[in-house]
Amino acid sequence: MIILAIETSCDETSAAVVKNGKEILSNIVVSQMDIHSEFGGVVPEVASRHHVTSITKVIDKAINDAGIEKSDIDLVAVTKAPGLIGALLVGINAAKAFAFSNNIPIIGIDHIKGHIYANQIENDMKFPLITLVVSGGHTELVLMKEHNRFELLGCTQDDAVGEAYDKVARVLGLSYPGGPIVDKLAKEGIDSYNLPRPYLQKDKFDFSFSGLKSAVINLIHNSKQRNEEIRVNDVCRSFQESVTDVLVTKTISAAKKYGVKQVMIAGGVAANRGLRNKLNDNIGEFELIIPHVKYCTDNAAMIGVAAHYQYLDLRMYDKMDLNGRPFSELGRD
Amino acid sequence: MKTIYTRNVEETIELGKLIGHMMFSGAIITLNGDLGAGKTTLTKGIALGLGVKRVVNSPTFTIMKVYDGRIPLYHMDVYRLDGIGFDYDLEDYLYGEGVSVVEWSDNIKDSLEGFLRIDISIENGNRKFTLSTDDSRYNMILEKL
Which of A122, A213, A298, B5 is the most buried (most CB within 10 A)? Predict the structure, then answer.
């Protein structure tokens, strides 16, 4: 089965051609990062406009680079949720137009499912497994006992991890997005500020990063009031140690509780070196799967792989009234 | 104008709950305060007062989240918007059936009228909530708190 996948949920315009849920024949990603960084975050209407100007070219290039004809495509898959609604709708309507004009069925895919299935590209999932989904909009622990079936074990009660990084970077006067720069500076710093570890209930798998964010903000305010120098690298390191301690501890304890075969990470923050290293150091007997950085950030290849397994499981297409939604319902139904 | 202090997260949620209990269809609450002031925490309380069951978490990434309750809750973070724009039909929500809670509302102030404004600041570790309005529909709420 050959799938043309389209992803426009945030600030990357992407199209990919995926064969049999494994082989990535092409994966074109046009990032708008430079455009949004000056605003300190993705500006929805700007994102939508850039998606509109890029999407057709990106789809054409994905098909050309894959070396296939339009008639070879069996299924069009598109991200339907969660994301910026205007941005999602650009991809959905491009997908519908392509599917309708070429008489190919269409299915809508949850973006989080895509992030999880990024792990199936270079590895093979072994069940049961748990995935820690960490990105600008998400912090979730998801249990899978078979393909395309998801149980939500816990999620953030306030800020997503990536969002906490962005906000901490903002108060430190660092650039957007906050994750990569904080990760980089953390490497040069030491964990010398005594920041809290927000575990909530130790036996539960929910997360909270808002209090930690406030602790960083207080620390900076207090230092300023006392005219003390703020050791930016140390703040980054202390913050990162707190975040990764909580993420890794919860992930490993969930892995033990559910007796999994694999532990996976997914989403943009899965590119964070501090998180990767700490998971690796604490993984014990579990097999740890970490996707290639290019499949951690938003891309259409992962949507194509997820679509393959969704279709194998449900054998269902969507209709032309397919719509975008800002929420994920993954594992919540 | 009314000023209320809370000492911790629990008290902030309790305050939000009281406000949520008294909210009516079509109400707009604007929340203004720095990062970490407690805007989302107060909103969690308002959601409880509105009978929302789902976890209310930050709307920053998607700009807006919608929750079912006794009255629906529309939780918006318009930090990255400059004016209300066309992407979100935000006006349909602001003047719709639910209760809108708008964080960083100054960015869309030209599109807002008839709201309860809550300014949040931190004083000696306590949260200071200053409630004000120029719309008589909210006067009773200020009196009762």
Answer: A298
